[in-house]
């Protein structure tokens, strides 16, 4: 069992608990070792001495335990969450996927349209605002147990748990509307955004990376057809090799 101190209140409780244990131990040893009359004479000064020594030491140790907890929390945040947008990292996404039960899920690959041009025209600060807002829209319009992750650049992956493919497409189209309806404000100027979405099924026990690749192919089709739309992976249409310039905006 690992003892954790997570707040100043718990630091004070820890210090009080340790001081009480030391005090009781001091009283017990005094009674067992010293003659009764001497134990009675020294009980008060001895108890005060035990508390005066143990309390500040216990408080100091509690403070260090709190600092360790806060550092560990920050480290976990950095490892598991994207620093810019706050959504999951790629590594955390795959870690959470392994926790899925016997349920069919849907993977959505989402990509901001013409993001490179947006960045070049309005600057990296505006680009960062766009990424944060896009990530917030994805997270706010998903359930608590769904997974939203940034895989790199302007590409995000969403996993909708216990969801059918048709409902996944509806969700992706809803996300696209939310993006269109909410402009990014940079220096009080409203800048519109759109995004494209690819949707694929992740069957129970299926390969998440394969589902992501399928959704990415559907995303390419959405980009090819004009962007600002969502498509479901179609093996007849999307199974072949992608053109060499798929990454081009």
From TrEMBL:
GO molecular function, a single term: diguanylate cyclase activity
Residues passing through the membrane, by range: 12-33, 39-61
Reaction it catalyzes: 2 GTP = 3',3'-c-di-GMP + 2 diphosphate
Keywords noted in UniProt: Membrane, Nucleotidyltransferase, Transferase, Transmembrane, Transmembrane helix
Pfam families the UniProt entry points to: GGDEF (PF00990)
Keyword NADP attributed: no
EC identifiers of the protein: 2.7.7.65
Domain GGDEF, first and last residues per copy: 103-235
InterPro entries: Diguanylate_Cyclase (IPR050469), GGDEF_dom (IPR000160), Nucleotide_cyclase (IPR029787), Rev_trsase/Diguanyl_cyclase (IPR043128)
Domain of life: Bacteria
NCBIfam families xrefs: GGDEF (TIGR00254)
Annotated protein name in UniProt: diguanylate cyclase
């Amino acid at each position: 069992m690992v003892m954790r101190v997570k707040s100043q209140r718990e630091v004070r409780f820890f210090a009080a608990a340790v001081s009480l244990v030391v005090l009781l131990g001091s009283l017990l040893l005094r009674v067992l070792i010293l003659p009764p009359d001497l134990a009675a004479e020294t009980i008060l000064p001895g108890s005060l001495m035990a508390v005066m020594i143990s309390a500040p030491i216990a408080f100091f140790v509690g403070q260090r335990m709190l600092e360790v907890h806060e550092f560990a929390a920050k480290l976990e945040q950095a490892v598991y969450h994207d620093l810019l947008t706050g959504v999951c990292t790629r590594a955390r996404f795959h870690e959470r996927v392994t926790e899925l039960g016997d349920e069919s899920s849907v993977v959505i690959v989402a990509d901001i349209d013409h993001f490179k041009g947006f960045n070049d025209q309005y600057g990296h600060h505006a680009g960062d605002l766009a990424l944060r807002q896009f990530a917030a829209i994805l997270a706010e319009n998903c359930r608590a147990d769904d997974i939203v992750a940034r895989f790199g650049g302007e590409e995000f992956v969403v996993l909708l748990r216990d969801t059918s493919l048709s409902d996944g497409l509806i969700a992706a189209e809803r996300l696209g509307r939310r993006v269109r309806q909410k402009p990014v404000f940079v220096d009080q100027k409203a800048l519109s955004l759109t995004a494209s979405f690819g949707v694929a099924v992740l069957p129970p026990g299926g390969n998440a990376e394969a589902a992501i690749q399928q959704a990415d192919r559907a995303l390419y089709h959405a980009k090819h057809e004009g962007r600002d739309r969502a498509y479901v992976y179609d093996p007849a249409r999307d199974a072949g090799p992608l053109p060499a310039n798929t990454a081009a905006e």
